[in-house]
Design goal:
With 206 residues, this protein is an alpha+beta fold. It has helices spanning 7-22, 41-44, 124-127, 174-186, and strands at 24-27, 46-53, 62-75, 81-91, 97-106, 113-118, 134-141, 146-155, 158-167, 195-196. It has one domain (39-196): Lipocalin (Beta Barrel). Strands 2-3-4-5-6-7-8-9 form an eight-stranded antiparallel β-barrel.
Length: 206
């Protein structure tokens, strides 16, 4: 009997392949990347544009995304810096802008690892599970042109991660993009997973 793949089967296989390309998942806990050596939080502060990213469902309709990091000068009981993060986007389907405000606490003043929680009217124990909240890490940055932002979540025996490429402008030069992709490969992260973020016809306010 000859096997003939059905349309439904082909569709499922395409979806599986798409998700495989877009998301990095595997067995075990998240990879453990050390904090970036000599990380300078002061130089990292300011406005960043999302230039590329891996697939992330909460951002599927988002475009013109910017992230602004500001030092609040507030320190927690352990002396760790507290940052304010303003995330601005435009819904590509409706054209409506949105702003999310979050707080980030770094592990210490020289750490590139931060715990982020978006502000919400929900109890803190619930808000920390909202999309956008979690642990983020600046794997590498030159401060002036780009930053590689990474996050990973573990679920029992498996993990899944996301990558964001941030820039001080809405796009990278070919030289900078080549440098970033080389850094990703050294970190065992596949650049083929990335999508170009939607940055066309963005309002000047973002």
């Amino acid at each position: 009997m000859e096997f003939r793949p059905t349309l439904q089967l082909c569709t499922v296989l395409l979806i599986v392949q798409y998700l495989k390309m877009a998301n990095s998942s595997g067995f075990g806990k998240c990879p453990n990347y050390p904090t970036m050596p000599k990380f300078n939080m002061t130089r990292f502060l300011g406005k960043w544009y999302e230039v590329e990213r891996s697939f992330y469902l909460p951002e599927i309709a988002s475009g013109c995304t910017t992230l602004t990091f500001d030092d609040t000068t507030i320190r927690d009981s352990d002396g760790r810096p507290q940052l304010e993060i303003a995330i601005k986007t435009v819904n590509r389907w409706t054209g409506n802008p949105s702003v999310s405000i979050g707080e980030a606490i770094t592990e210490n003043e020289k750490s590139s690892i931060m715990s982020v929680q978006l502000k919400s009217r929900l109890p803190s124990a619930v808000a920390r599970f909202l999309p956008g909240s979690g642990k983020y890490q600046v794997l590498y940055t030159n401060y002036d042109d780009f930053a590689i932002l990474w996050s990973c979540s573990s679920f029992v025996a498996v993990h899944a991660d996301q990558i964001w490429l941030l820039g001080r402008e809405r796009d990278f030069s070919a030289e900078i993009r080549k440098k970033i992709y080389s850094a990703l490969k050294q970190l065992s992260l596949d650049p083929e997973r990335l999508f170009i973020s939607k940055n066309n016809n963005c309002p000047n306010t973002l």
